[in-house]
Design goal:
The chain has 277 residues and is α+β, with helices and mostly antiparallel strands. Helix content is 49%, strand content 14%. The protein is built from ten helices and seven strands. The protein has a five-stranded mixed beta sheet with strand order 5-4-3-6-7. Strands 1-2 form a two-stranded antiparallel ribbon. A hairpin with a 2-residue loop joins strand 4 and strand 5. The N terminus is likely disordered.
């Protein structure tokens, strides 16, 4: 389900478009600055076994697949073949690795060109298209066009964090980017549950402590999946508190973070109940 707190901006709202695209542009420029040196190109990152060059390859592979998706949404060609979300990590890795041998300058130039084309596509969307044009995603099926813009923010912001983390530098995720990503992370958790058929249903609280989406949510876990909605958590056995950046990085499997109030074992059970993409 799409999780938002009433009265607070979210990426699906056309009113958020200019702000979101400004953040994507800034994070992308930061990424290109990080990978532009010879020593950075084959440096390790926090994205598993990927080097910085693999992050760029991933961005090229992903963005060029988006072009196919947008063309299909407008009636120009077939959509990309649908792949189960559980297999996304394997396919994304293969796509990145396939571009490893392309020289640094060539691959960065290709990535920049793809980025500029993608941004031009986003800018051209009308308000109705931003939230209403359904674009076929390779792993998630038809999604509103605005999802692709927020996915670009994930790719450039989180993968820039990966590169900085791999370099061993003191660093952090920008608060405005993290704020924008909070609603998406609730959707991510709803879409990636790893739950055994006989799981006994339970509820747990999620608290975002600061930022535009500060507030409480109730996560309901059952054999049918995970649903998350804004609600009162005061009577729940456990509440996990996150600042926005820690929430984003935990949801995307970069760190294990959060402050548990109450039943720590239940909180740990919840946090290990998702597969990684």
């Amino acid at each position: 389900m799409i999780h938002t707190h009433a009265g607070r901006a979210n990426f699906l709202d056309p009113a958020s478009k200019d702000r979101l695209l400004t953040l994507v542009q800034r994070e992308a420029e930061g990424m290109f600055a990080l990978v532009g040196t010879d020593e950075a190109w084959m440096a390790p990152t926090a994205a598993g076994h990927w080097q910085a060059r693999d992050v760029v390859g991933h961005l090229v592979d992903t963005t060029e697949t988006y072009f196919v998706s947008f063309n299909a949404a407008r009636g120009n060609g077939a959509p990309p073949p649908l792949v189960p979300l559980t297999d996304m990590a394997v396919h994304v890795d293969a796509g990145a690795q396939a571009l490893r041998r392309i020289p640094q300058a060539e691959l960065i130039a290709r990535c920049r060109k793809d980025f500029d084309q993608m941004m031009a596509t986003f800018v051209s969307l009308t308000d109705a298209e931003w939230s209403g044009l359904m674009v076929p995603h390779k792993y998630m099926g038809p999604l509103p066009a605005s999802f692709y813009a927020i996915f670009q923010l994930v790719d450039y912001a989180v993968h820039s964090w990966d590169i900085r983390q791999g370099a061993g530098k003191a660093h952090a995720l920008a608060g405005d980017s993290a704020d924008m990503l909070v609603p998406l992370c609730f959707i991510l958790w709803s879409a990636t549950p790893k739950i055994a058929p006989g799981t006994e249903p339970f509820q747990i609280g999620i608290r975002i402590t600061t930022g535009a989406h500060a507030g409480d949510s109730v996560a309901s876990v059952s054999p049918d999946g995970v649903t998350i909605a804004a609600g009162d958590v005061s009577a729940l056995p456990a509440v996990i508190e996150f600042d926005p950046a820690s929430f984003v990085l935990t949801a995307y499997g970069r760190i294990n973070a959060g402050t548990v109030r109450g039943d720590a074992e239940l909180a740990h059970r919840f946090l290990t109940g998702f597969f990684r993409i």
